[in-house]
């Protein structure tokens, strides 16, 4: 294992054990270099890696400090209440910004999920989620034009998909079976989420269905910055009767 990774591993253990509390100033690079008997450049690389992983932050000219991970957002992974509503009900300073709305090429998995044919047109609407001004998630909704005739023109202005569905007469929702996975961000995702390649993303794939008609409203793919959330709660989804 490279020397800087040994230092990273040890410091992560010390932070997790409580030796270094939130906002505690860490030893200087010189002290770390002396302690582990390595060149200062190795200590610097270790601190850079810890910052990329979301464990520490730096103050210009003052040193490195432990990031407060207890202020992270509690994440409830359910599909019957909008993400915006969950965040606002918990009192977070929440904002949402639409970053793209465009038609996709035929994708069998997505089209099958939406229960639509190859001749249909499907659009993906991407919204960037912010808490306290920090980007924490990319929410991508795939919607069929056969269900929402104006999605191509209305999409760029949609801040909340649930509000859009309400405006189109769909008022009660349930979730399709969800799947969770972990991936590392691509270059474009890192740019949107303002994170490094070392921050894992929690990927939730699910869908929203109208309870009354059982119409599939959307296929959803949400990318959450794992360092921004303290816990993941997955309620049992309500089922739609067909």
UniProtKB/TrEMBL annotation:
PROSITE patterns tied to this protein: HTH_GNTR
Molecular functions per Gene Ontology: DNA binding; DNA-binding transcription factor activity
Record-annotated HTH gntR-type domain positions: 1-69
GO biological process terms on file: negative regulation of DNA-templated transcription
This protein's UniProt keywords: DNA-binding, Transcription, Transcription regulation
Gene3D superfamilies, A to Z: Chorismate lyase-like, Winged helix-like DNA-binding domain superfamily/Winged helix DNA-binding domain
Transcription regulation keyword on record: yes
UniProt name for this protein: GntR family transcriptional regulator
Annotated organism of origin: Desulfotruncus arcticus DSM 17038
């Amino acid at each position: 294992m490279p020397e800087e990774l040994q230092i990273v591993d040890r410091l992560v253990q010390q932070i997790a054990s409580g030796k270094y509390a939130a906002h505690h100033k860490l030893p200087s690079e010189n002290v770390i270099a002396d302690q582990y008997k390595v060149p200062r450049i190795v200590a610097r690389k270790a601190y850079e890696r810890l910052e990329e992983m979301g464990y520490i932050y730096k103050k210009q000219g003052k040193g490195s400090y432990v990031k407060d991970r207890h202020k992270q957002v509690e994440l409830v992974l359910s599909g019957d209440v909008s993400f915006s509503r969950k965040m606002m009900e918990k009192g977070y300073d929440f904002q949402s910004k639409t970053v793209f709305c465009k038609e996709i090429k035929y994708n069998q998995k997505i089209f099958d999920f939406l229960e639509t044919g190859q001749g249909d047109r499907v659009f993906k609407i991407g919204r960037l989620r912010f808490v306290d001004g920090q980007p924490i998630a990319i929410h991508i909704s795939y919607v069929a034009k056969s269900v929402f005739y104006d999605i191509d023109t209305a999409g760029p202005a949609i801040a909340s998909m649930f509000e859009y569905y309400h405006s189109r007469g769909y008022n009660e929702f349930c979730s399709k079976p969800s799947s969770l996975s972990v991936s590392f961000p691509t270059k474009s995702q890192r740019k949107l989420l303002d994170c490094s390649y070392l921050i894992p993303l929690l990927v939730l794939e699910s869908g929203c269905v109208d309870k009354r008609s059982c119409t599939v409203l959307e296929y959803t793919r949400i990318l959450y910055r794992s360092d921004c959330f303290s816990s993941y709660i997955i309620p049992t989804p309500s089922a739609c009767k067909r």
